[in-house]
Write the structure tokens for this entry.
Amino acid sequence: MRDTFLGRRWWILAASAAVLSGLLGASVRLGVGTVPSVWLQDAITPAERALSSGSSAVSGLARDVTQLWSLSRQNTALRAEVARLQQVVLRDAELQAENVTLRQMLRLQTSAESRFHTQGLAAEVIARDPSTWFQSLVLDKGSADGVSVGMIAITPSGLVGRVVQPVALHSANLMLVTNPEFGVGTMVSRTGAEGAAVGRLGSADLVMTFFSPNAQVRVGDQVVTSGIGGEFPRGIPVGIVVTVQMGGLGLVRQAIVRPVVDVGGVGAVLLLPAVGGG
């Protein structure tokens, strides 16, 4: 409503100025005296000023609107560029991480060939069951790629698990070392104390039960595969002792072992054939 009123007022002032200008011109042409001309000029001046002021205000408003529109476009363009650069940075980080993983797997293959006399088969993780996060996962290699039941899965850090049924043409199920049904012969690398480690239900740790009640073990000891049982090669890192549980008469009963591999974050593994240890 106010904008309409101001618009009408501006047009009235403009019309008044035009009429007064016409009268002034006529008085000059007709030779009318100087005093009426001065009167007319005095009457026209305020109208001209008001008209000039209104025109300046309109021009200023148009200029402000144009600047705001330009700034809005620039802001939109900058936001789009920031989003694009964030995607580039994220993709670059992903490529760097993938490059590191590939380099590690290449070194692991070379090491496996010298230690276990096999090159191994690299496979990537393609699926997990959220309800059994620490129990199993699915690999992108299957029987058509040379995968068979019983193969051992490792990373540069250590043991991950072993392949179990079913094995499809191009996928395979991997039972993780933290699965309660998983078991592996182990030993304390510092003292050679042997035992068997199994997964714990609802936990990411393992329980190692020693064969001898006099086993020499302490918190911080490294646990590796012992080779006993004929499935796992000897010397693959399994975990670190975090708790020693004592039985009666001060005899060692069990140890809680924290896996060296974060099985929840594994993205790729190297598969080795099951072999007998020595």
The CA atoms of residues 24 and 38 lie 9 Å apart. The domain at 120-278 is CATH 2.40.10.340 (Thrombin, subunit H). Confidence is low (pLDDT under 50) at residues 26-35. The chain has two domains: 1-118, 120-278.
